[in-house]
Amino acid sequence: MSDAQPRARRELTVAVLLSALAGALALSSSSQPWADVTVTREAPLPPTSEVLTGGQAAPLVGACGLLLLAAAVAVIAVRGAGRLVVGLVVAVAGGVLAWSGLRGVTGGLDLDAGDVSSAVGLGRAQVTSDPVVGWAALALVAGVLAVLAGLLVVLRGRSWPGMARRYERAGAPTPGAAAPAPARPRRPESPEDRHQAAWKALDRGDDPTL
């Protein structure tokens, strides 16, 4: 029992760090190049080339990154069933990230002329792409980390402490806490106390004999 609370805090810290790290990696990956795209247009127009970022090639990567950063805070702020829901959301976001990263690494992204700004409105065109593996692989790693964080929250999160304990009413009794010390009994009034009370009444303009 003595090791249960430190272990729970360590697990909570690991889950928060994994979720935050996964979110940061996903946001970094989304702003970097994922594919070198070549658009072959109808003659006599020459082919064009452009670089697509992760946010253009896989828009959900950036959204999942923001979600994971928010979830890192939510894991601390909620408890019970709410924490279970957060864990499921983190795991799903990790799955989306991993799938998007895997498609970027293997060149399986679905790209068309509409994804390349310079080719819009130029009629039919053939799009070919060469993946930039490094940044897509970073999203894949972020997805794996997020899935691990989500599973940890789902499986172990109910036993972790939460922020809500700090905001409970100060007057509310806490289970297992020591009872407040009883107030000291008031000592009997002495003749000196009555004498001082009479002088204070005269100072206020009251009649101490009433």
UniProtKB/TrEMBL annotation:
Disordered: annotated span: 168-210
UniProt entry tagged with the keyword Aminoacyl-tRNA synthetase: no
InterPro entries tied to this protein: Trp_biosyn_TM_oprn/chp, Trp_synth-assoc_CHP
Compositional bias (Basic and acidic residues): 186-210
Residues spanning the membrane: 59-77, 84-102, 132-155
Keywords annotated in UniProt: Membrane, Signal, Transmembrane, Transmembrane helix
Pfam families (alphabetical): Trp_oprn_chp
Keyword hit for Cell membrane: no
Low complexity bias: start-end ranges: 170-181
Protein name: Trp biosynthesis associated, transmembrane protein, Oprn/Chp
Organism, scientific name: Modestobacter italicus (strain DSM 44449 / CECT 9708 / BC 501)
Phylogenetic classification of the source organism: Bacteria, Bacillati, Actinomycetota, Actinomycetes, Geodermatophilales
